[in-house]
Design brief:
- There is one protein chain.
- The protein is of the alpha+beta class.
- It has 3 domains: 81 residues, Phosphorylase Kinase, domain 1 (2-Layer Sandwich), CATH 3.30.200.20; 152 residues, Transferase(Phosphotransferase) domain 1 (Transferase(Phosphotransferase), domain 1), CATH 1.10.510; 33 residues, no CATH class.
- The chain is built from 8 helices and 11 strands.
- The chain has a 6-stranded antiparallel beta sheet with strand order 1-2-3-4-6-5, covered by helices on one side.
- Strand 5 and strand 6 form a beta hairpin.
Length: 290
């Protein structure tokens, strides 16, 4: 149903489509002048967190997190206006029984880690990582959407005041036993990686890819202290997985010091070092032989 209205700035807004089935909190695709965006209703209790998130994002945005245009409150609701992205969610791929290749899972997993690292660096926890909250854009990147469940981490708090999370993806501590921190997101990341490779939940199938399986099993440790302690560590583990399409020569190339992690920050200095070493070798050969 389309609904036209004029906001306080004098511009006309039109609801293009309702994007969820909730009767309590609505999500609309909205057009304001030439801008199309997503407008989401959240509990009023989320207002302070969303304002903090919006302020931090304005200063240091992450390319792997959806952009928030505005945050405001009514008497009963927190409202966020969120970028509309063209692409397909991971859930939509999985619903069509289209698993991701190991190369795709590696790439998108690394990008999701980068999104979560930004959130965790700012002392927040995402709390609802799942296939429907990650979109693969038309440009081929994974972007985290729907930040409405984010909470601020409070060191003095023993457990979450509100239980939020999706069954099957939520870590054990999200059910009221302890306060959630970044390790709850790491648990959900493990579930998501397995989803992407198998199109199945953990109780149905675990990936047979040995290197991914090792990462996933550690992400899914029941005790948070036994999981990876940061998404940076998970990202580095994913970066060590060699592309399935790499030739044998490239696999050998990845054994050379400086190239093992496949990180540009390591490979570029290593390339200059090896180039310098080769030039010095040639210089001595020419000087002393000829």
């Amino acid at each position: 149903m389309e609904e036209k209205r004029r906001n306080t700035m004098g511009t006309t807004e039109k609801n293009l489509a309702k994007l969820n089935t909730s009767t309590e909190y609505n999500t609309w695709l909205v057009k304001r002048d030439s801008l199309i965006f997503v407008k989401k209703e959240l509990p009023l209790s989320q207002y302070d967190t969303m304002k903090t998130f919006y302020s931090l994002q304005e200063k240091t945005p992450s390319p792997f997190i959806v952009k928030i245009y505005n945050v405001f409150a009514t008497e009963t609701l927190c409202i966020i206006e969120e970028e509309w992205l063209s692409g397909t969610t991971i859930a939509e791929y999985l619903d069509k029984n289209l698993p991701f290749s190991s190369d795709e899972t590696r790439q998108y997993g690394i990008e999701i880690c980068q999104a979560l690292r930004w959130i965790h660096k700012n002392r927040m926890v995402y709390r609802d990582l799942k296939p429907s909250n990650v979109i693969i854009t038309n440009s081929g990147h994974a972007v985290l959407i729907d930040p409405g469940t984010i909470r601020m981490y409070k060191a003095i708090q023993s457990k979450d005041t509100v239980i939020i999370g999706t069954p099957g993806y939520a870590a054990p501590e999200q059910f009221g036993f302890h306060q959630t921190d970044q390790r709850a997101d790491i648990y959900a990341l493990g579930v998501l990686l397995n989803n992407m490779l198998t199109c199945a939940m953990l109780n149905e199938q675990l990936t047979t890819h040995k290197k991914f399986q090792k990462i996933i099993r550690r992400c899914l440790s029941i005790a948070a202290k036994n999981r990876y302690q940061s998404c940076l560590i998970v990202q580095r583990e994913l970066e060590r997985i060699v592309s399935e399409h790499s030739t044998r020569d490239i696999r050998f190339f990845r054994c050379i010091p400086g190239f093992r992690s496949a990180r540009l920050s390591h490979m570029i200095p290593a390339s200059f070092f090896y180039l310098w070493a080769i030039l010095m070798f040639l210089y001595f050969v020419i000087t002393f032989v000829y």
